[in-house]
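Dear support,

I submitted the protein below through the web form. The confirmation email said the job was done, but the results page showed an empty box. After a refresh the structure appeared. I'm attaching both so you can tell me whether what I see now is the final result or a partial one.
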Amino acid sequence: MLYPQRLGQFTREHADTVAALLCGLLLLFGWFALHLGALGLAFLLLPAAYVIGGYESAREGLTTLFKEKELDVDLLMIVAAIGAASLGLWRREYHLIIDGAILILIFAISGALEGYAMQRTERSIRSLMSLTPDTARVLLQGREEEIPINQLKVGDEIVVKPGELIPTDGIILSGYSTLNQAAITGESLPVEKTVGEEVFAGTLNGYGALQIKVHKPAQSSLIQRVIRLVEQAQTEAPPSQEFIDRFEKGYAKVIVVAGILLATLPPFLWGWDWETTIYRALTFLVVASPCALMAAIMPTLLSGIANGARQGILFKNGAQLEKISQVRAIAFDKTGTLTTGQLQVFQVVSASEYTNNDVLKAAASIESSSEHPIGKAIVQAAGDLDWVAAIEVQAIPGQGIVGISQEQQIIVGNAIFVQQYVTNLPEELQEIVQSWEQEGKTVVWVAKNPTPNPSPQARRGAGFQVMGVIAIADEVRVEAAATISRLKQLGIEQIVMLTGDNQETAHSVAKAVGIDRVYAQLLPEDKLNIIRRLQQQYQTVAMVGDGINDAPALAQASVGIAMGVSGSDVALETADIVLMADRLEKIAVAMHLGRRSQAIVKQNIVVALSFIMLLLVGNFLGNINLPIGVIGHEGSTVLVTLSGLRLLK
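What the results page shows now:
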């Protein structure tokens, strides 16, 4: 019972191959029948070969003719084959019927090979679809229950056991594990995840069990957005392919008109006999068809998209793969793009009677009650030190924070705030602070009143001492400088930084990464205007960003590139290319991929046109027959298609 089912499934999945095989067998037996003089059997087998091998091409060609009122290559092939058969019957030269059948057979084999080649690209892209399981294990009233992914709701708590795929994006409620995020970000090394951190659907859980809270609908997960965008990329033709499609429609009409002229004029102009004239006209229809030219672009671009997806670079369509190869100027956002977007303690300097650890412990005891990013950076830096959380903590927005730690009053804040408690700030520390601020770092002062049990009225001059200063900075991405250097090596003419931050900080980061041109203190519309100005000068301009305020500039840029992990939803939707791993060096990889794809497309076009010209010359000189013309024509098409698949490596 299973065998017929498997046979039926195989036939459906490999219909083109089965049709080509049957066509080949019928052609072989028909040729034997002609050779043995069994014309009746031959006239039964050969038409069957025509029908089976040419049915799909005839159907597609007639559909295009009647529905779109356009001629296409498939119909030209069928006309040429039927013309050869008709000529053979008319002249009783039955080998021409064999020639027509060989034409259809080679065309069918070519179609099957092209189908397999494109399926390889399709599988590479569609492998994204298998990255998420169909069900999730949900906690319902203390019990685990498996439900379909599409039934998950925001707020549901799911359990993921070791070795399982994460079913949807969520926040870890409990547990600790390492996750393999290669399928999403292209990163091969596992990433450690613990409570409070976000996990993504399609990533593979390591050795730890995790309890995860769903914080967005399953259809809004990162992997689902990736899948939708890749599907969209497959259906949208880039400008070059649209041009080739328009060219083909006009070119097919020219071929038909030229074929009719070649089938009628040579006997009157050059004295050809009618058999030679019609045969050459039919061969012309075959060799002049632009099949290879039509296959020169899309297989290459789809292979490039698949290659990029495997490396954590998501091209939303083939047009962006073309455009990034033409980029002459790139604009970078600063925070979250060139920097990590996460504040860290850069340096601690203590007053003479204290140590750096004393300063950090005192600041951390107060800041542990704060939600401010600066406070979090200080607490993180003091993580290995022994400190006790303060009590009676009071934050003064924009200035600082006050509290009591181990019966001593501690203050942490900017210079103006600390001077409310301390009469004079140490001069040696002021000099250090001034140099830090010139480098664009944020500085917090730490002071304390060493008197046990200070009264609430303890104010300026009442025994407060400066303990030290802490420099806070947004860490520059480790790969940023190497990326900028690589882009310059690739010939990018202008690299600029756009930021809403102050001049000092902006220039400090720009100097660290090697960017010479900086625009600071910008609003979103300012970034947009600068992109427009760059486009006037350099035409094709890329913008790299991650936040909502970058969205207008990303949309305006010729190529918008968003950071996938840290990027806002608005930035991800607006951008043309998404770096799934937030790895800046992938920009250079994407650019190289784009340039390589364009080089292959140009090679393919040259090969396709060269084959057409050689076959046309050979046809007019009488050096090729119809089967040789078909082999040359279809061989060039398969060659060009396989050439495009080189980008899968």
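Response: this is the final, complete result; the empty box was a page-load delay. The mean pLDDT is 79.
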